[in-house]
């Protein structure tokens, strides 16, 4: 161990009953549900960053569960049962988040979701409309609601250009990502969960009677380990189908008389934008170079920043001037399958990751499931 005092070893760096690696949505909610189940247990979260290091504080704040074209795209490679079960879990995950925190605590707004289609997506739109009834009927059997409908009448309302069609989703909304995470952290601490930042776990040693976490502060024995690092989980589970996927984002300075309200999807979910504090937040472009975006490195590239800026000028804000105020990126967890990896690994570890860009929807669902598994 590093230079810990007697007091630090006695009261801080000591045996923990449950150790969660990662302080994102899944790690925090998992810790909360575990602590509620075992109030006397020592439940600790280890986070390598000053703030959550993946996407939980860097996402766009979409309370969404899948656009129409994204669902059809998924059906090309996965069974109907798998796709619609995942939609159900995302929908229930959003409900679980809203039960855990109030809408005021997350900044949730029931704005609806909108998918836009330009000339480049003409065939995609036609396929969406062709299968709209089927998707609505199947979703209704799964979550109890029909969700999608044509919303071409709102194109002028939003002030778009080069947008030919819109399909709306009545059950999507937006949240304030930072507010949600701040209140989740506060809730976890109020329940008695310990959170240590700046602690990076390099590997887990299972050779002893109990797991040993090897960290930049030394080794520590623990009881059950929950790996909730999503896009970074491949570092601890290199054999699993989990890869990092960088999501780049830009945000404008405030814009007067901004017409856009809601969460918007484009190009099978690869692009997304919204109004937040009279600014446009726009993310996406990963499809331009998926291989290069399979990285653990944060940062923004000129190629994708220029692409997003051009999309803003040509389609989203064609009549108005805007100025980019900030750029940033987050790391998602993806794989060949979109199904969540949620399983026990041996007798003392739970793997809980691979959300495919749907961490807000799936994080609380998975965290609650972790609480039920221990």
Task: Walk me through what this model shows.
- Strands 1, 2, 8, 9, 10, 11, 17 and 18 form an eight-stranded mixed sheet that branches.
- Among the domains are: 150 residues, FAD/NAD(P)-binding domain, CATH 3.50.50; 92 residues, D-Amino Acid Oxidase, subunit A, domain 2 (D-Amino Acid Oxidase, Chain A, domain 2, 2-Layer Sandwich), CATH 3.30.9.10.
- The mean pLDDT is 95.
- It starts with 5 loop residues before the first helix and ends with a helix.
- The longest helix is centred in the first third of the chain and has 21 residues.
- Helix 2 links the parallel strand 1 and strand 2.
- It is an alpha/beta fold and 374 residues long.
- Helix 2 packs parallel to helix 9.
- It contains eleven helices and 18 strands.
- Pfam families: DAO (PF01266).
- Keywords: Membrane, Transmembrane, Transmembrane helix.
- This is FAD-binding oxidoreductase.
What descriptive keywords fit this protein?
single chain; 374 residues; alpha/beta; FAD/NAD(P)-binding domain; D-Amino Acid Oxidase, Chain A, domain 2; 8-stranded mixed beta sheet; 18 strands
SSE layout and pairing:
Blueprint: H1 6-11, E1 16-21, H2 25-37, E2 43-47, E3 62-63, H3 68-75, H4 80-100, H5 103-106, E4 113-117, H6 122-130, H7 132-143, E5 148-150, H8 155-158, E6 165-169, E7 173-174, H9 177-190, E8 194-197, E9 201-205, E10 212-215, E11 218-227, E12 243-252, E13 263-266, E14 271-276, E15 279-283, H10 302-316, E16 324-334, E17 341-345, E18 349-353, H11 359-373
Parallel strand pairs: 1-2, 1-11, 2-8, 4-13, 11-18
Antiparallel strand pairs: 3-7, 4-6, 5-6, 9-10, 10-11, 12-15, 12-16, 13-14, 14-15, 17-18
Helix pairs in contact: 2-9, 2-11, 4-7, 4-11
């Amino acid at each position: 161990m590093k230079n810990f005092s007697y007091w630090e070893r006695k009261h801080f760096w000591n045996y923990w009953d449950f150790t969660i690696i990662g302080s994102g949505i899944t790690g925090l909610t998992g810790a909360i549900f575990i602590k509620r189940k075992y109030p006397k247990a020592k439940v600790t979260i280890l986070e390598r960053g000053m703030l959550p290091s993946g996407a939980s504080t860097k996402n766009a704040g979409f309370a969404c569960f899948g656009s129409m074209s994204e669902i059809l795209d998924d059906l090309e490679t996965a069974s109907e049962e798998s796709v619609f079960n995942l939609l159900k879990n995302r929908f229930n995950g959003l409900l679980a988040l809203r039960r855990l925190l109030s809408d005021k605590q997350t900044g949730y707004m029931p704005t609806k979701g909108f998918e836009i289609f330009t000339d480049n997506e003409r065939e995609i739109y036609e396929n969406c409309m062709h299968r709209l009834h089927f998707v609505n009927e199947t979703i209704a059997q799964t979550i109890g609601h029909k969700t999608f409908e044509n919303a071409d009448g709102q194109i002028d309302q939003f002030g778009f250009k080069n947008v030919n069609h819109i399909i709306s989703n009545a059950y999507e909304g937006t949240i304030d990502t930072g507010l949600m995470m701040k209140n989740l952290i506060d809730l976890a601490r109020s329940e008695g969960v310990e959170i240590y930042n700046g602690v990076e776990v390099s590997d887990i040693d299972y050779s002893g009677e109990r797991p040993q976490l090897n960290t930049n502060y030394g080794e520590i024995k623990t009881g059950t380990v929950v790996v909730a690092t999503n896009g970074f989980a491949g570092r601890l589970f290199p054999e699993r189908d989990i890869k990092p996927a960088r999501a780049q984002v830009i945000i404008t300075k405030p814009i007067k008389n901004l017409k856009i309200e809601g969460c918007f999807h484009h190009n099978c979910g690869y692009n997304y934008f919204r109004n937040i504090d009279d600014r446009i937040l726009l993310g996406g472009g990963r499809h331009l170079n998926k291989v290069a975006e399979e990285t653990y490195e944060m940062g923004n590239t000129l190629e994708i920043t220029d692409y997003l800026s051009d999309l803003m000028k040509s389609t989203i804000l064609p009549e108005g001037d805007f100025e980019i105020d900030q750029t940033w990126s987050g790391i998602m967890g993806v794989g060949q399958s979109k199904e969540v990896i949620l399983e026990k690994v041996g007798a003392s570890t739970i793997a809980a990751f691979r959300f495919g860009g749907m961490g807000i929807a799936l994080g609380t669902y998975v965290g609650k499931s972790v609480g039920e598994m221990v």
